[in-house]
Amino acid sequence: MKLSFDSIIFEWRGPAPFYFAAIPEAECQDIREVSSIVSYGWGVIPCSVTIGKTTITTSLFPKQGSYLVPLKDALRKPENLKVGDAVKVTLDIAV
User: Fold this and answer.
1) pLDDT tens for each residue of 49-69
2) pTM beyond 0.85
3) Structural domain range at position 14
4) Rounded to whole angstroms, how far apart are CA atoms 8 and 20?
């Protein structure tokens, strides 16, 4: 399953800062439809994420009925991404 959407990067402060892009509701619905066959535990969903020319593997985080894309340094740094940036995200979820 391949999904593309626009999002804004935000920071969630915990013991260390984490950066995410929220997935819009329409795409969350598509993900929920396959979540039971692709999740490997506690609702996280493995995928590859592409922003710009950079692709990484990660897992989507479930959050209050929707999903967040974690934006690792391996993705943010090559694309020079920061909090507040608008990004075009492409997800590839193996179904």
Assistant:
1) 999 999 999 999 999 989 999
2) yes
3) 2-92
4) 8
CATH number at residue 55: 2.40.30.100
Nearest residue to 23 via CA among 56, 40, 53, 47:
47
Q: What is the CA radius of gyration of the chain?
A: 12
**What separation in angstroms does the CA of 90 have from each of 2, 3, 41, 53?**
7, 6, 23, 11
pLDDT in tens, 2-44: 999 999 999 987 766 799 999 999 999 999 999 999 998 788 8
Tally of domains in the chain = 1
Q: Which two tokens stand for residue 7?
A: 């999002």
